[in-house]
Amino acid sequence: MSAEIELSSVFGRYTDKQLNIKVEGSTVGECLKDLFRQFPKLEKLLLTREGKLQHAYDIYINGESAYPEEMTKPVKDGDKLNIVFIIYGG
Predict the structure, then answer these.
(1) Which residues pair with 74 in a beta bridge?
(2) pLDDT tens-place values along the chain, 90 residues long
(3) CB 73 within 8 A of CB 53
(4) In the β-sheet with 57-61, what is the strand arrangement from edge to edge?
(5) How far is residue 26's CA from residue 88's CA, in Å, rounded to a whole number?
């Protein structure tokens, strides 16, 4: 399946300023793996050592949160994924 990951401009320094990236995969995890193949520096930023999404980020598929099973959520051809930085505080 072919999908597109839309990134915030803060990730541009890791992707040669590309913010809309075509990826292949049938799950969010597979799409991220393809993203990291293209831009390896993003992997340490976004994933824990165990391969889970860092708590500071959320992934949306066509505007809907993929939480809590973000890495195994299915992705269909043409889906748009957004990686969002979650702001903590109070």
Answers:
(1) 27
(2) 899 999 999 999 999 999 999 999 999 999 999 999 999 999 999 999 999 999 999 999 999 999 999 999 999 999 999 999 888 776
(3) no
(4) 20-24, 2-6, 80-85, 57-61, 64-65
(5) 31
Task: Please give the Cα distance from 28 to 70 (Å, whole number).
Answer: 6
Distance CA 78, CA 2 (A): 6
- Supply 25's token pair: 């995969």
- In the chain, how long is the greatest CA-to-CA distance? 40
Domain annotation for the chain: domains and CATH numbers: 2-85 (3.10.20.30)
Cis peptide before 74 (omega within 30 of 0): no
Whole-model pTM? 0.93
